[in-house]
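Z., the sequence and structure:
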Amino acid sequence: MRRAAYGRFGRVEGGARIPYLSAGSMLQASRTEDHAYSQIADIIETRCVDPKRDLEELWRRLAPAFDVNPFPDKDPKLKLWLTGDSGPVHSIRNMLGVASYFRLSEDQANRVLGEVCAAIRNWRAIAQSAPIGLTADDLEAFAPALANDQIRVAAQLLP
């Protein structure tokens, strides 16, 4: 089945929507509650058809490019919670230490982290490309979100 993107939702050829269920819905969470990635991983284990694949996708979202979701006026520090007891994680290194909770070997976690690092390596060229068209001032404003200490640490951790 080929996938194509039309608007906000993924679609298959012919235009039918690809159904999805958000993590918030799976957890039956309200927007006022805080939840940790480990809770999402637990739900994926019990409710998803392909938990191994879905856990890898969740791990990918722990990596720096997703967590920064770049906003020029936001603090680029990591703020995600891996578990309800751990508090915010402040280091990519700590995240690699819990990869096994997401059914990933060390090699798999490093592969995903490498893919994310490679994806953001050329962020400036992509941001200046015709579809996006950021100005020099825009690039300067977004730089802290996409070129920060944690991204450098992630690149250094790769084998």
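The beta strands are 3-6, 9-12. The longest strand covers residues 3-6.

Let me know what you think.
H.
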